[in-house]
Amino acid sequence: MQLPGAARGTRIPLERAALPATRRNPGRQVTMQLNRSLAPPDLGRAIAKWHNNEAQSVASLQALRSWRREVSGRWLLAARHLSGSATRSLTVLVATLTTALVQSGCAVAPLVQDAGDSGPSVLAQMETARPAAVLTEDGVTLRGVLVGAPGSEVVVLHLLPSASSVTTGVSVGFSRIGLAPTLATFQELGFSSLVLDYRGLGDSDGQRSSDHLLDDGRSMWREAVRLAGGREDQVIIRAGSLGSLIAADLLGHGARPRAMVLFAPVSDGTVVQHAAQTHYGTLATLWIRTFYTSPGAVDLCSAIRDAEVPILLLLPETDDYFPAEEQAELREVAHASGHTIAVHPGDHQTLVLRAWGFSVGTDGDGFSGQRSPELLQTELDFMQAHGSWKEP
């Protein structure tokens, strides 16, 4: 029995083996539509692209190549003797994934995803936005925007979700939405905003890398404090999804902002596992958990428990990246510590989009979306209680 499309005796490079199409849970059609660009059919190529910049020593690289040849040969030999399309597909999947991971080596999971090359830029959409930049400790310049509010002393530091950028906005799967409308809303309410792209995204220098995610976040925090006159209590941190890892780490290392808003947060200890399970399934998760680690941020629940600043947690009803049992623990910790919790309809991605002004709903013909630049009422109320406030 041969692999599909192969002549007898033909050797197929595993990196080019196509993976079988899979169907997700029909009950998660919103996530399917919004995230279909995040789940490419060739898993091996996707993971290789995820992490193609890992430096390895010559000796280690030779050992890995030797192992790769051995593993590849065994899987291809087994594939020729196995019958049934399902078994052949499973064999190709395991072989492709194994090869890609062997090439990459063990490293921090590539959670910082590409934000694209084009989209709605804040600088192009807002006349009041000004370029901003900060130099990291290892000499990389991060760039973004500062949107000032006249007479404001409070700076809101926005820590973006993955695949998002000041220059291209946030992905809606089939399109991208800009950050400008939401930043304009903060400006109208009397809050200045600082948004900087992670390295390798937008106009920021360097190579896209999850290894430096926390370092980038600390540099962003220092710049926000500088803009606030050196006062941490004049900075509000607003972080969503991937950005919540930075927020938790900042708290765990002594940052004391005026307040913090976390929407669709994730936990450092489980985000790699849940991201792999959501996009690639159980089998891929086993390999990814073996070869990849998390960025190493402070545990979210621990950071919330020990925080000495008011925190608003905006949680989705369902969240594949932060499941019900983990949410329950977080809610218990937050409640005991006196923080504010609000649960909103939808899943992880719909809440992330809603936090940046895009409301996803359903109608008689399917799913629909519309711009909603105003903040969620729970966030408005929280800002009114803990920030400088200007009546709209």
Word description of this protein:
This protein is 40% helix and 18% strand. The chain is an alpha/beta fold. The chain folds into two domains: 14-105, no CATH class; 122-386, Alpha/Beta hydrolase fold, catalytic domain (Rossmann fold, 3-Layer(aba) Sandwich). The strands form four sheets. It has an eight-stranded mixed beta sheet with strand order 2-3-8-4-9-10-12-13, sandwiched between helices. Helix 8 (243-252) links the parallel strand 9 (235-240) and strand 10. The chain is globular and about 55 Å long. The termini are far apart. Residues 1-91 and 97-105 have low confidence and may be disordered.
Q: How would you concisely characterize the structure shown here?
A:
The protein is an alpha/beta fold and 392 residues long.
Keywords:
single chain; 392 residues; alpha/beta; Rossmann fold; 2 domains; 8-stranded mixed beta sheet; 3-stranded antiparallel beta sheet; 13 helices; 15 strands; 40% helix; 18% strand; globular; disordered N terminus
Work out the number of β strands: 15
Overall geometric form: globular
Summarize the biggest pleated sheet: 8 strands, mixed
Radius of gyration from the alpha-carbon trace, in angstroms: 22 Å
CATH 4th-level superfamily of the largest domain = Alpha/Beta hydrolase fold, catalytic domain
Oligomer: single chain
Spans of at least 5 consecutive residues with low confidence: 1-91, 97-105
Would you tell me the overall average pLDDT? Answer: 77
Number of domains: 2
Task: Summarize the helix and strand pattern as letters.
Answer: HHHHEHEEEEEEHEHEHEHEHEHEHEEH
